[in-house]
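Reopening closed ticket. The problem is back. First fold of the pair:
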Amino acid sequence: MKTNHFKGPIERNIAMELVRVTEAAALAAARYLGRGDKTLVDEAAVAAMRYVLGYVPMDGIVVIGEGEKDHAPMLYIGERIGDGSDLKVDIAVDPVDGTNLVARGLPGAIAVVALSPMGTMHFPRQFVYMNKIVTGAVARDCIDINAPVAENLRNIAEAKNRKISELTVAVIDRPRHEQLLADIRSSGARVKLISDGDVAASIEAALPDREVDVLMGIGGTPEGVLSAAAIHCIGGAIQCKAWPRDDHERQIAIASGLDVDKVYNTEDLIDSDDVFFAATGVSSGELLKGVRYFGGGASTQSIAMRGRSGTVRWIDAQHNFERLDKLSFFKVH
């Protein structure tokens, strides 16, 4: 049973405060671009994100984070975060969606945070992976994750008044998608392979007038919930189904009472219009520019969204390191 602890709407636009959080994580992670060590990337981003989140006026609990307490010293699932103010919220974080991308010097990595009233963010954590389909508002009522690939693409094309050959489908480049890719190509649609980071690709698929029309395939469950937060704001649609890696994982889920055949839609994952989302580019990609340095500072590009208003803001910022360092004992660059 879902339990909503929230007593009223979130009146302030906390998405703008979350941008400061993702900016800090991006600035910290970008220092290690192309240096081949994803652990350094992750540690720097986690520490910076945790520090700035601690000053946000809220009483938050981490629903999606860096893992369980015993394995993650910061931003672990269940951690209380914020300054303890009355605003009680669920928090989902991915300090770097695409740590491998940053470590290898590849494009498309972003720092991500989502927030909704406490009790409204639902994470089927028994599953590491989920099968997903994402598209924008125009075709939101035309997708069915249980339908054949060709049928979904035909319906999306019709909703967008396009030919199937004019659609572009984003898919993570993994061996598990061999059949999916064959089905997409046989339908006549175009394919855009991505190496990592399906949160950014999901947002691309949901935003209007972008290169990607739909995302399909199997990706991380936490990323599915983060994507749902953004999609709730944009107005598109996401559908997910559990993808157990083996029979053992399937049986554990069944034993815990989960329906492995359940289709999760946007509202199943984020059960509130009072959802906020922010992301900042770490390495430049299709969605966001990465961190760019200049003498004594750096520039960033972020996106901030608010579910209740449907507002999506693009934020270009310049950061003066000398002045930032005077504001706190913790360097975020």
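Second fold of the pair, where the issue appears:
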Amino acid sequence: MNFLNLTKLSFVGSLQRYALAIVAFSSFQFVNAQRYLPNDQKLLFIGQDVASVEGYRANCTGCHKGHGEIAYLSFYTLEETNLDAGPGRVIYYGGIGMDNNGNRDTNNTRWGAGPLNLWSAAERYPLVAIGLSIVEDAYFGQDGLNQIINGAHDSKIVKMATFFNQFPSNVFYLRIGYEFDGNWNRYEPTKYVSAYKRIVDILNANLSQDNVEYVWQSSTSPVDDILDGDKEDITKYYPGKEYVDWMGLSWFLRANENPTQAPIPATQLELANELVAFAKLEGKPVMVAESSPQGYQIDDKTNCNISPGYDGAAAQGCANKTATVLYEEWFGELFDFVAANDEVRALCYINADWDSQFLWSAANNYQIGYWGDTRVEADAEVMNLWKGSIADPANKFLQSEEPSDILNILSVDDVATNDATNFSVYPNPVRNVLTVKGGVDVDTMPYQLFAIDGKKVLEGISTDGAPINVSGLTKGVYMLKLGKSVAVKKIVKQ
């Protein structure tokens, strides 16, 4: 669910099933060309606001602290300070925690849904998954996508790059226009793709190091399909594999839950499986980028209706649950999905008392549905079950919590090789001369440089440390293949 979208949801239309269109698989593939991905292990992110994360770390006794934190940015307000956005909503630089001169700003942005400050998140965790809202609405971002495409907001993209450059040891997973297919965002596919690409291109041209991963996140939501009256073809929103490092999905409902008030759409599990199938086809890892048991109140151990258009009046029809039943019917199903899919390499869990935050609460008439209290530490038995799930070898979560361990594991370049171990390239992004260093058992290194469409543009043999002249290449993204191995590195030519 879009954290920054304040639009009231109205459930309309009918629903029809249809087969997900699958794009043709490219004849050229970069095998396992993934960075920042622990070998055969999975990452855990906690969110979704500063207070919720602090509460988890302070009160979830003995829990895994997580490898990363979830944060959110309001793109169109990144250069605005002390902006009154309505009752209880004050914006400071879109939640980035940095003023327009590159200095830290300690003020937290508040949307009535918990404090946001990306700088604080980056200091607390080595990895940060960022939801970048580019939603167009009458208050912020009217005609925003066209403005992004036409370059009117380039300074905001450069500001994000300036922020990322301040944290060269962090890795940022940027979810551009997250839940791109969500009815509540109302993105037109062609505009969304063009805006997404421009954000990536401007960022890559201004990053001083390669520490941003680009995540393409679907809503994978039955609620979206009810709102749309149909299940859209998500590939219409796809910017292409050269612009996507990860594919993301949202998971808020039970795996096989059906609505009671509308025609039956595809289930949460069916939609998630379709996204995983597409990711597998494109050779991308999957991030469960937002997850939370919507409608559950963990402290009271109840499950209530979400919305009139789905299952009944919000916060009504509550059923009492034991801790074990509550956990198994939502968390158990989620972890079954995580364990069953090797492509799923990261889980982002929203550990929040939603009902205490104005945006999601009765005080706001549950305009965005009923969410409840999803803090795992709110019940001792649920907390212990959570600890067991994270420690369970079947779920393959990386057990180390130390930032240095996490970054050391992620810095290894992701792939099995046959004549190269690890090698480095610098500078990256590069303008004229690229240096390749180390990683092979011979004195010379044959190399090949491919355009993102698979066309070979350069090849040769470079002695260890000798430069490769790339000044004649056009700006863009390339892949460098070293030796006979399948090891590749993404190169950004400025």
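Update: turned out to be a display glitch only; the data is intact. The radius of gyration is 22 Å. Residues 3-33, 412-421 have pLDDT under 50 and may be disordered. Please close again.
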